[in-house]
Amino acid sequence: MVAMGFVMAMTAPIEILYAHRFGAGTVAITAFVMISSVGLVTVDLFGTRVVPRLEPRASITTGMTGFALASLLMGVAHSFPPLLVARALQGTSAALLQGAALQAAVRTSDSRERALGALNGAVLLGGAVGAPVGGIVASLLTGTAGYRLAFGVCAALGVATAVGMWWLLPPLPTSERPQLGLPRLSGSSVMGLALVLGMLGYYLRSGVVNTALPLVGAEHHLSTSIIGIALGALAGVQIATLRFADRLFVRFAADDCLVFGLVVGIGASMLLVVADGWVAFTVAALLFGFLVAVAMVGPPLVIMSLSPDASTGLASYRIACGVGSLAGSTSINATVAAAGAAGALSMIGAVLLGGIGLVGLIARRLSEP
Fold it and tell me: How far apart are CA 262 and CA 253, in angstroms?
């Protein structure tokens, strides 16, 4: 799972910067950002009774191979349209890969908190190395040549990782037959609120980590290597937080952990509004790292507690992840284009403030008789 995180994070800091090199306008860049999330949502929405019933090892290997192919397509593209095809394949492959990995982690552990923390921690450990490596590789050559080199290296490592996963992961057969169709979700109003909260983690990962921070860094005239290193440090904070996730969420209530993390995120947004330079950028990235870690564990625990079984809860959560990813990348990119980095950061702060209110509402509903 560490290798999976490395490959998936390696080109994250440079993808949107690479797309700008093709001279695309605001609408085209928005489509570039959106289409990956559309693929993610499509798989999660129509595959809630497919992915949980597939053999996880085969699904993980297939998803990683597709992700590697998407990286290769980006690297060899000489016009903007092939980038859209590559991004669509990337989103679809990532949804299959992440959904299968989540199912495998929970099915092989007797502690949900430990399983979620270990999986996210392993992926982020790879990301902590992959993000700066991608930025550094892209800076080795001038123009688009450096970007192409980074995508090529990412594709090669993705294929190697897929082969390794096939040989090293144990088979986890399932007796249920896959059924393509819309999900069967609980009609509970509390579950609806919990699913909205579940969007938060991937809203932050897609909208803040993969979109806002690279764009803010570019607006502050930071190099791709500095941006990559800061995102690697962000992943490092996530790893440290997730390492103790089981203890954190057992000792403190999930709503308290989430509220504290959201307050930290608001502080990070304000810091980037009032200060620039690599120091402020790195400190804000570290603060966002804590928030994203908390937001990746708290909501799925709440959703699974409200679901008849863990697999159904995780499938529901994956839908929320896809919607959050789409909302984050689309809204942040559009806001940066219309109002600049300060406008996007202000919007992020407002979303996080709304999240605090949502956590409080869910806690009150759960406490009602």
Answer: 14
| Cα(306)–Cα(292) distance, integer angstroms | 22
- Helix (H, G, I), strand (E, B), or coil: what is residue 186? coil
How far from each other are the two terminal CA atoms of the chain, in whole angstroms? 41
CB-based contact 366:301 (threshold 8 Å) = no
- Please, what are the domains in the chain? 2-169+187-367 (1.20.1250.20)
Rounded to whole angstroms, the Cα distance separating 242 from 261 reads 13
Rounded mean pLDDT of the chain?
79
Q: Can you give the C-alpha Rg of the chain in angstroms?
A: 19
Distance of CA 209 to the CA centre of its chain: 8
Query: Distance between CA 73 and CA 204 in Å, rounded?
Result: 26
Those residues whose C-beta lies under 8 Å from the C-beta of residue 368, and which sit 6 or more positions away, are: none
CA 359 – CA 357 distance, rounded (Å): 6
The whole-model pTM stands at 0.65
- What pLDDT score was predicted for residue 112? 59
What would the mean pLDDT of 105-123 be, rounded to a whole number? 65
User: Which residues are within 8 A (CB) of 184 and not within 5 positions of it... i.e. 6 or more apart?
Assistant: 48, 49, 312
Residue pLDDT, tens place only, 204-235:
877 888 778 888 888 888 887 788 788 878 87
pLDDT confidence band for 107 (50 / 70 / 90):
low
Q: In this predicted model, which residue has the larger pLDDT, 247 or 159?
A: 159
What residue type is 17 in one-letter code?
Answer: L
Residue type at 242? L
Can you read off the two tokens belonging to residue 212? 């806002």
Q: What is the DSSP letter of 220?
A: T
